[in-house]
């Protein structure tokens, strides 16, 4: 059973999280510049056994896709074409940034550290992955 990799896609930076091999624990892995995301993924997939890719689906409060979904949808299509052996799924990412900031605050990070957008993206990807894994149980 391969790992699950989660992507919190952004137009500038993308947060990435990955599960352990047993798919029990989600952990923040990296924040990469979005323009280099697909090259980073190719390298990671070549070195690691990943069977599922979860991409955060930006949603509005009423459940419809948000404006930024227009950037996510083409990425998902490219990933499905490039990696037909991997399951590529969308997962609701509403409130992940809010939850990430709350986790940082509750974890005792100082205000300056909470402004680290790369860290927020990585934590958001971890929240997406954890939510997806819990929904599959």
Structure in words:
By secondary structure, the chain is of the alpha/beta class. It has a single domain, classed as 2-Layer Sandwich (Nucleotidyltransferase, domain 5). Helix content is 43%, strand content 26%. A five-stranded mixed β-sheet has the order 3-2-1-4-5, with helices on both faces. The chain is globular. 31% of the residues are buried.
Rounded to the nearest angstrom, the distance between the terminal CA atoms is 15 Å
User: How many helix segments?
Assistant: 5
> Helical residue percent?
40-55%
Give the H and E element order.
EEEHEHEHHH
CATH topology: Nucleotidyltransferase, domain 5
Strand order of the biggest β-sheet: 3-2-1-4-5
Could you give the count of β-strands? 5
Mean pLDDT: 87
Largest sheet: 5 strands, mixed
Low-confidence stretches: none
Summarize the structure.
The chain has 137 residues and is an alpha/beta fold. The chain contains 5 helices and 5 strands, in the order βββαβαβααα. The protein has helices spanning 37-47, 69-82, 96-106, 111-114, 117-135, and strands spanning 3-8, 13-19, 26-33, 50-57, 87-92.
Question: Key terms for this structure?
Answer:
5 helices; 5 strands; alpha/beta; Nucleotidyltransferase, domain 5; globular; single chain
Structural topology:
Elements: E1 3-8, E2 13-19, E3 26-33, H1 37-47, E4 50-57, H2 69-82, E5 87-92, H3 96-106, H4 111-114, H5 117-135
Parallel strand pairs: 1-4, 4-5
Antiparallel strand pairs: 1-2, 2-3
Helix pairs in contact: 3-5
């Amino acid at each position: 059973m391969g790992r699950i990799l989660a992507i919190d896609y952004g137009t500038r930076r993308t947060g990435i999280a990955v599960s352990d091999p047993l798919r029990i624990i989600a952990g923040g892995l990296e924040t990469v510049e979005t323009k280099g995301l697909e090259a980073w993924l190719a390298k990671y997939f070549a070195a690691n056994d990943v069977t599922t890719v979860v991409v955060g689906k930006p949603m509005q409060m009423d459940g419809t896709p948000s404006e930024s979904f227009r950037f996510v949808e083409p990425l998902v299509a490219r990933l499905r074409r490039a990696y037909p052996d991997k399951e590529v799924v969308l997962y609701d990412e509403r409130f992940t940034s809010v939850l990430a900031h709350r986790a940082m605050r509750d974890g005792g990070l100082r205000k300056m550290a909470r402004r680290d957008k790369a860290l927020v993206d990585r934590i958001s990807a971890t929240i997406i992955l954890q939510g997806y894994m819990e929904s599959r149980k």
